Every structure is written in C-alpha cells, then in structure tokens.
C-alpha cells in the first residue's frame, strides 16, 4: 500500500501527446510503456493543489492528535494510567503515516515528479506502507481483543493478557514490514527522455509487468480492506449488541460509539479500495479503455487516497479522546507534569467511569 503505486501508469500518461513513452532508469533497466494519447478534460493542476491543501490539514491535525496519544501513554508510568498497547501502537503507526505527508505534498505539487532521489523514495514509501498497514492491522486486532476480553477472558490474569498483546503487536509490525517489502524493492527513479521529468515508480519485471501490477493492487485491497473490514464489523457488532442489551443508558451509548468505529472505517476506506478495483479491471481490460475512464481513474485515485488518510486524524478521536476516562487521564498527566499529586487529581480519580465502559469504549481490562 503506497502513496504512489496505483497512479503509476496514469502518471506516465501525463507526459502528454505521445503514443509511446520512453523512460530511462538510474540503473539502466527500464521499460517502455505504450499508451494512447488522450485530451485531458481535467484540470490536474487545480486538483493536485487542492489535494495538497487537504494533505497539509491532515498532517497538522494527525500530528498533534497522535502525538498527544503517544505522549499520554509515555506519561502512564508516572500517572498510574494503564496503557492499552493497541491504542499506543495505533497512534505510533498513524503518527509515522502523517509524518511522510510533507514528502508526498512536495511531489504532488510538481505533478507527481520526484526530485528527491531514489533512496528518499524507497525510505518514504517503506515508512508510509509499513505504518499504514500497521494502523489497519491494529484496528483489526483491537476489535477482536475487546470482544474476547469482555466475553471470554475477563477473569484471565492481567500478566497473561499483556504477554499475548505484546506478541500480537510484534507479529503485526513484522507482517506490515513483510507485505511492504516487494513494492519497495521494485521502486526506481525514472526519467522521461522526452520531457526530462523524473518520477519514482515501481518498475516490475518487463515480461510480466501487468501481472505484478495487478497482483500488488489486489494484495493491497485484500490485506487493507477485504480481510480487516469483515473482522472489525463482526466483532464490534457482537460487542455492541451485547452492550446495547443492557438497560444502563451509559452502556447503551457505548454500543453506539462502537458501531461508529465500523462506519468510519467503511466510509474512509471503501471508496479508495473500490477505485483500486476499478483500476485492476481497467488494466485487465475488463473495462473498455476510454479517455473518460482514464481521467476518472486519475482523479478518483488521488481524491480517495487523500480521503482515506483522514482515518489517521479520526483514530485518536474515536479510540482515545471520545472516552471520558482518557480525557481524565490526559488532565491528570498534564497536572502531574507541572505539580505534585493534588486534590484535583484525586477528584479526577474519583470521577472515573465504570470498568465495563472503560473496557468497551476505549481500553481493555487491566
């Protein structure tokens, strides 16, 4: 999953009124792409500059929100706050995703050209891909963990649960790293011999370029949506159903919050992965080629990918700030930072919500 993978062919076509696009690569190994010249009815400059503004907004909000979540979890050892390992790792993953955004903005405003060298492209792509996959995987693990913690393992030892969660987190990072390696390996800086424009693109083996491109797109859709979303939806639905059955108004409200987790994930990621599948069908010629479709895919891939990254801003709100216990712990962490234990922090401690709500809405049992 990358900020550059799925617009690679479309961006090559930007080299203008040509039926053949020649590219030279830094290592001498490259491919020649043949294309059909299409008059562009899309104002690409206006689109890319508008998206750059949205990306900057996502960067600022995501940077601040996720930094606060990470900082609070680091302060936990001073405040007595029990960290939720998945929330902490989710915030780290989202934080590193948004930290790569300035690099993509620099490329975006130059019509996806890449002036920063091949090494920078590989490193930025790897960081982006690992942490974006990691973010989705941690959201999936969190939904399963919360359900089992409430239904089956509420009486199990705290130490055993911590060990299991740590092992799961290690596995998630290793899996995210593994699935991010193939595209990073194939990334090259390529220069058009006609326009002298440099791009950073995955250059798969020439003899089966289409198969590699389709395979990587389908892998991204499968691991980024087709597998995680049903898991998240099913486990949160079961958890919300159990909680909503309670006559307690506060717990019923928690059930509605849990359903919002599923809706936000769906709204953020379904459009992007739907467009990626359209791109796959187009490459495989299941959808007849047309200039209108080319222009649509170019715009849709850029817009939906930008929109999907809003998830990095919404995650800290949904999984941290919306929970009353979290807000209390944030206040307590700030107070502890600048003063000794006071009557105010004791008052905050006395105002904590029930352990059941704490488990279901924000964190698991201690």
From TrEMBL:
Organismal lineage: Eukaryota, Metazoa, Chordata, Craniata, Vertebrata
Name the record gives this protein: CXC motif chemokine receptor 7 CXCR7
UniProt key word Transmembrane helix: yes
GO biological process, one term: angiogenesis
Domain G-protein coupled receptors family 1 profile positions: 65-319
Record key words, sorted: Cell membrane, Disulfide bond, G-protein coupled receptor, Glycoprotein, Membrane, Receptor, Transducer, Transmembrane, Transmembrane helix
GO molecular function, one term: coreceptor activity
Location within or outside the cell: Cell membrane
Species in which this protein is naturally found: Hypselotriton orientalis
Membrane topology of this protein: Multi-pass membrane protein
A cellular component annotation (GO) from this entry: plasma membrane
């Amino acid at each position: 999953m990358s900020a550059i993978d799925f617009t690679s062919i479309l961006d090559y076509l930007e080299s203008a009124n040509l039926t053949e696009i020649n590219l030279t690569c830094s290592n001498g190994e490259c491919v020649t792409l043949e294309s059909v010249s299409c008059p562009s009815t899309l104002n690409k400059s206006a689109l890319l500059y508008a998206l750059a503004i949205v990306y900057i907004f996502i960067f600022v909000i995501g940077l601040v929100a996720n930094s606060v979540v990470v900082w609070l979890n680091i302060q936990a050892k001073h405040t007595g706050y029990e960290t939720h390992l998945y929330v902490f790792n989710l915030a780290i993953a989202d934080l590193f995703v948004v930290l790569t955004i300035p690099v993509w903005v620099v490329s975006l405003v130059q019509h996806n050209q890449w002036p920063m060298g091949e090494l920078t492209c590989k490193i930025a792509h790897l960081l982006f891909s690992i942490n974006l996959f990691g973010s989705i995987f941690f959201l999936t693990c969190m939904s399963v963990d919360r359900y089992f913690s409430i239904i089956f393992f509420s009486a199990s030892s705290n130490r055993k649960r911590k060990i299991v969660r740590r092992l799961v987190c290690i596995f998630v990072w290793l899996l995210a790293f593994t699935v991010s390696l193939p595209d990073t390996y194939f990334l090259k800086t390529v220069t058009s011999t006609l326009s002298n424009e440099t791009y950073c693109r995955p250059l798969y083996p020439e003899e089966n370029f289409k198969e590699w491109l389709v395979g990587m797109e389908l892998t991204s859709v499968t691991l980024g949506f087709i597998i995680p979303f049903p898991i998240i939806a099913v486990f949160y639905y079961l958890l919300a159903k159990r909680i909503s059955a309670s006559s307690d108004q506060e717990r019923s409200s928690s059930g509605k919050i849990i359903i919002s987790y599923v809706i936000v994930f769906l709204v953020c990621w379904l459009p992007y992965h739907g467009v990626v599948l359209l791109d796959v069908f187009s490459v495989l010629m299941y959808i007849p080629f047309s200039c209108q479709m080319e222009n649509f895919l170019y715009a849709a891939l850029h817009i939906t990918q930008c929109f999907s990254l809003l998830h990095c801003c919404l995650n800290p709100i949904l999984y941290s700030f919306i929970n009353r216990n979290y807000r209390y712990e944030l206040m307590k962490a700030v107070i502890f930072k600048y003063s000794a234990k006071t009557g105010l922090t004791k008052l905050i401690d006395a105002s904590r919500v029930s352990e059941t709500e704490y488990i279901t809405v924000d964190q698991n049992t201690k």
